[in-house]
């Protein structure tokens, strides 16, 4: 069966190495929503070996650190679900009290309309890519 | 403001050490749903230092490994959200195609009634506690 994360980047590519990649997800109301995606088709974190797992989490936490520094969200949400697409990927989601679902998970009930004000994320995407290239 | 994870275990305590603990959550339709909870009141993973983070993730992945071995779920879901309770905790959720929300996240639309068949989870809880005590 075709896997969309095997066939495509899965978002706007910010950075990649031989093992994994980071993409920015265009989701209205969620600036800075990124995904860290393992390049190989693996379903569960415990199918990776300990060093691969540690490396992948280092990428996730580096993303979290950058997003916290540059966006100052009220909370970061991290999730690896993959029920529909069982190809390892981490959602790294800056959450704001004013976002469409807060305090619900983004998969829960939407409570308000997304803010339509456009924010130029180009400098943040560039800074994230630089940060990831240094780890 | 009072924090429920500072005041209470947050579920049925399976194991704890000086830094964190693991509880089993009684959620109809979700046998084996566990949470790994940092003992101190910290909101984000990147507020921990690298060794604390690595230790906490080791606990999460040990839980995942045990739950996969003993329950054989169709997928594991991992999530650290904390929008309502900003005290670090990881949801470690064995997911089954027959569970109430699959393939939706457990916070999404419920698609079916929970299976009311009771399963004796005592042996699995004991095995998880033993597994965690060895790391």
Provide a compact summary of the structure.
Helix content of chain A is 28%, strand content 21%. With 135 residues, the first copy, chain A, is an alpha+beta fold. The mean pLDDT of chain A is 96.
Number of strands of chain A: 5
* Greatest chain-chain contact: A-B, 30 and 30 residues
Order of helices and strands of chain A, N to C?
Answer: HEEEHEEH
Major sheet strand order of chain A: 1-2-3-5-4
Q: Tell me what portion of residues of chain A adopts beta-strand conformation.
A: 15-25%
- Distance separating the two termini of chain A: 34 Å
Low-confidence spans of chain A: none
Assembly type of the shown chains? Answer: homodimer
Helix/strand/pairing category of chain A: alpha+beta
How many distinct helices of chain A? 3
What profile does the largest beta sheet of chain A have?
5 strands, antiparallel
């Amino acid at each position: 069966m075709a896997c969309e994360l095997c066939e495509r980047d899965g978002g706007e590519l910010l950075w990649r190495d031989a093992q994994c990649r980071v993409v920015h997800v265009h989701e209205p109301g969620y600036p800075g929503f990124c995904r860290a995606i393992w390049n190989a088709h693996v379903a569960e974190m415990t199918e990776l070996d300990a060093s691969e797992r540690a490396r992948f989490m280092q990428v996730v936490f580096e993303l979290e650190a950058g997003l916290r520094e540059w966006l100052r969200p009220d909370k970061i949400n991290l999730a690896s679900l993959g029920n529909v697409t069982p190809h390892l990927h981490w959602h790294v989601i800056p959450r704001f009290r004013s976002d469409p679902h807060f305090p619900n998970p983004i998969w829960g009930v939407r409570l308000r309309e997304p803010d339509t004000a456009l924010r130029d994320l180009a400098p943040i995407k560039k800074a994230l890519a630089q940060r990831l290239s240094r780890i």
